[in-house]
Amino acid sequence: MPVGTNGTVKAITRDDLESIGFEIILSNTYHLYLRPGVGVISAAGGLHSFMSWPRNILTDSGGFQVFSLASFRKILDGGVEFRSHLDGSSRRLTPEGVVDIQAILGSDIQMQLDVCTSWGVSYRESLEALSITTEWLKRAKKTWEEKADNGYRGTLFAIVQGNFYKDLREQSAARAIDANTPGIAIGGLSVGEEEEVFLEYLAYTAALLPWEKPRYVMGIGTPQYILAAVEHGIDMFDCVLPTRTGRTGRVFTHAGDISIKRADRETDFGPLDPLCGCKVCRQYSRAYMRHLFKTQEILCSMLASYHNLYFLHNLVKDTRRAVEENRFLSFKKNFLKEYSGGQR
Predict the structure, then answer these.
(1) Does 172 share its domain with 209?
(2) The overall pTM is greater than 0.90
């Protein structure tokens, strides 16, 4: 899922997203709640209408942003009180309120409010965060069911937390399964840990979850992590990486990610990736992309972001085909052999 935090995927138009083939994008409740505000989006007829996106939208609850962006936060009276990173104003979110906001947005998939802890926190802090997340899940589900009874068609996903403690992961997974939401997300990964730790806890947590429900790992967007997730039965993932790195002059290729800023690109008139069929690779050269970057032309961000999103979308399509044809492991091995040996 491309990330459209503020109701837009950066440097990409709706038509471009549709032409690539995306069926769903992600937006963020915290950011939209602060700006432009729920009232504006409600008056526009919901987020789909406001941003002119006719397909699916998943909205993150904003829990991660509250605990990572807000200048002050405190859990109080069953919710979290914080100061906006925009203007310092005092705000408050509750599990029920976050469900209400996402229902007004018209989210097709909404996430429960949770407490996400960072890499390296203590067992005690992780346990406390897990206990709060579990209690908030119960309250979120109750409100979501009331909304569904009144005609709201969006679904709710529970979130597994527990930091990097396996017994806490087990507890959290069990509570998420008990909640019986339509899907389950794995949170608290890719938060600063080493790759080996990520892979260990991805495998461990995924194995705890039922196969019959969609499983979503939040915040991963490299080819290596995507393929690792699929290997462990993960169905959904999102990340800002493809557009963020595109804006800084890094692009994915089948031979590895490359920087278009390097001096030796100045007279490199080949495509970004000879194996890619996107419109950028068909029409523009590495030399031209470097020129755009060096002259700080907006078009560079647009083209690099388009290419990166196309590359990952195509990777996921090829991965799905390999799974269906029972050759995923060989596909993964061959792809990573080529990808990891490329230029940097």
Answers:
(1) yes
(2) yes
Per residue in 256-310, pLDDT (tens digit) is 999 999 999 999 999 999 999 999 999 999 999 999 999 999 999 999 999 999 9
User: Is the backbone peptide bond immediately before 36 cis, with ω within 30 degrees of 0?
Assistant: yes
Domain membership flag for residue 211: yes
Q: Is 167 a catalytic residue?
A: no
Q: How far apart are CA 99 and CA 93, in angstroms?
A: 10
pLDDT in tens, 197-251: 999 999 999 999 999 999 999 999 999 999 999 999 999 999 999 999 999 999 9
Dist. CA 107–CA 29, nearest whole Å? 10
Is residue 145 domain-shared with residue 216, that is, in the same domain? yes
Q: For 286, what's the count of Cα atoms within 13 Å in the CB-facing half-sphere?
A: 21
Rounded Cα distance, 130 and 116, in Å: 9
Among 60, 114, 257, 273, the active-site one is 60
Q: Is the pLDDT of residue 344 over 60?
A: no
Question: Are residue 217 and residue 305 in the same domain, yes or no?
Answer: no
Q: Is 60 a catalytic residue?
A: yes
Contact 276, 253 (CB under 8 A): yes
Q: Does residue 254 share a domain with residue 202?
A: no
Catalytic residue among 16, 87, 114, 238: 238
* Domain around 276: 249-340
Q: Could you tell me the CA-to-CA distances from 63 to 111, 135, 217, 258, 263 in Å, in that order? A: 9, 14, 15, 33, 42
Q: What is the dihedral of CA 296, 300, 302, 307, to 10 degrees?
A: -150
What is the tally of helices (H) and strands (E) in the chain? 15, 12
pLDDT tens per residue, range 141-170: 999 999 999 999 999 999 999 999 999 999
